């Protein structure tokens, strides 16, 4: 495929074949989602990256924003993303786009054991149930679940908004798209630190 220009349908066929071949190699283990919602943000187990996501609407739904923050077992930020999207939509669509951005981040970074958390219960239920979704955000939910097969283990959890404050910050961070690693914007430092003290 290197150096060739393919039509979208050819790319789709290649990707489907590649995914099926990958799935035939072995089972992906899926961590059972937690049943209880903790009262404060909790770090992941050692060797696992926890990725929180949040979506936002601006200008009465004419623009959307997504925020993502990934942290290690010490609660340290290892990556973050803030995107302002020039598309219109609902809050649930923004949340779905944020969940996809969270999984994209994990795939790009090569993380294989992840916990993905968001504060939109209806979206998290769709991700946990893995049932075909015919809503407006259904294709994005399918994208998220398709991307998740590369993980050795993963789970999708619902968290209270109070446990998702850092992702919320990044969803509202700026009018431009930005991302980073361990160096987080100074305005986010007190929020991250308060999670560690809770």
UniProtKB/TrEMBL annotation:
Q: What Pfam families does this protein map onto?
A: RVT_3
Organism superkingdom: Eukaryota
SUPFAM superfamilies from the xrefs? Ribonuclease H-like
Q: Name one GO molecular function term.
A: nucleic acid binding
Stored Gene3D superfamilies: Ribonuclease H-like superfamily/Ribonuclease H
Q: Which residues form the RNase H type-1 domain?
A: 52-173
Q: CDD domains recorded for this chain?
A: RNase_H_like (cd06222)
The entry's protein name is RNase H type-1 domain-containing protein
């Amino acid at each position: 495929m290197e150096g060739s220009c393919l039509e979208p349908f050819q790319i789709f066929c290649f990707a489907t074949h590649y995914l099926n071949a990958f799935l035939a190699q072995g089972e992906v283990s899926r961590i059972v989602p937690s049943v209880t919602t903790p009262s404060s943000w909790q770090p992941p187990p050692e060797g696992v990256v926890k990725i929180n996501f949040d979506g936002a609407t601006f200008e009465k739904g004419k623009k959307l924003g997504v925020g993502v923050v990934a942290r290690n077992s010490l609660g340290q930020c290892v990556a973050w993303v803030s995107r302002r999207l020039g598309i219109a939509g609902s809050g649930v669509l923004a949340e779905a786009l944020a969940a996809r951005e969270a999984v994209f981040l994990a795939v790009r970074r090569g993380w294989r054991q992840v916990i993905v958390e968001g504060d939109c219960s209806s979206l998290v239920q769709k991700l946990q149930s893995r049932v075909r979704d015919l809503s407006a955000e259904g294709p994005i939910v399918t994208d998220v679940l398709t991307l998740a097969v590369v993980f050795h283990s993963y789970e999708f959890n619902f968290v209270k908004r109070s446990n998702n404050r850092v992702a919320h910050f990044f969803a509202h961070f700026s009018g431009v798209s930005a991302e980073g690693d361990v160096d987080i914007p100074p305005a986010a430092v007190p929020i991250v630190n308060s999670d560690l003290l809770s």
